[in-house]
Amino acid sequence: MVTLSVYLDGPFWVGVLEIVEDGRLRVTRFTLGSEPTDPELYAYLMRYGTALLEAASRAPAVTSDMRARSKVNPKRAAKLAARAAARITTRSTASQEAMRLELESRKKAAAADRKATRQEEAEHRREVARRKRVERRRDR
């Protein structure tokens, strides 16, 4: 099941594409800018829909609590809820958790890219300096 939600987040309108498969939820988030009309949203999805679906399918999966739970003794339910609240400091929905995981994975990928770029630049500077040293020796 695929769901698209559009909401206002600060100054920007944001879209959230959720994919639920086999009880696993995958989410991607994208910024739309100003408030989109229905035709603009349709055109956006026609243009970038495939990329959004691919991004959502690559996102880390989170278990979805969409299945019905059996009856639980109220005292036991209270005890389980207290344990869960003690473990979790921030309350979030499954979509928010999936977006957080996707953001973390994007941050790690960007950090790796930045590190590789810095290393390439440093290697280039070392190579230029080495060539200058060789040229200075030849001029003697």
SSE blueprint and pairings:
Elements: E1 2-9, E2 12-21, E3 24-33, H1 38-58, E4 62-63, H2 74-87, H3 94-139
Antiparallel strand pairs: 1-2, 2-3, 3-4
Outline the structure in words.
The protein has 140 residues and is of the alpha+beta class. The chain is built from three helices and four strands. The chain has helices at 38-58, 74-87, 94-139; strands at 2-9, 12-21, 24-33, 62-63. A four-stranded antiparallel β-sheet has the order 1-2-3-4. The chain is elongated and about 90 Å long.
Q: How would you describe the shape? A: elongated
Number of strands: 4
Order of helices and strands: EEEHEHH
- Work out the strand percent: 15-25%
Summarize the structure.
With 140 residues, this protein is an alpha+beta fold. The protein has helices at residues 38-58, 74-87, 94-139; strands at residues 2-9, 12-21, 24-33, 62-63.
Descriptors:
140 residues; 4 strands; alpha+beta
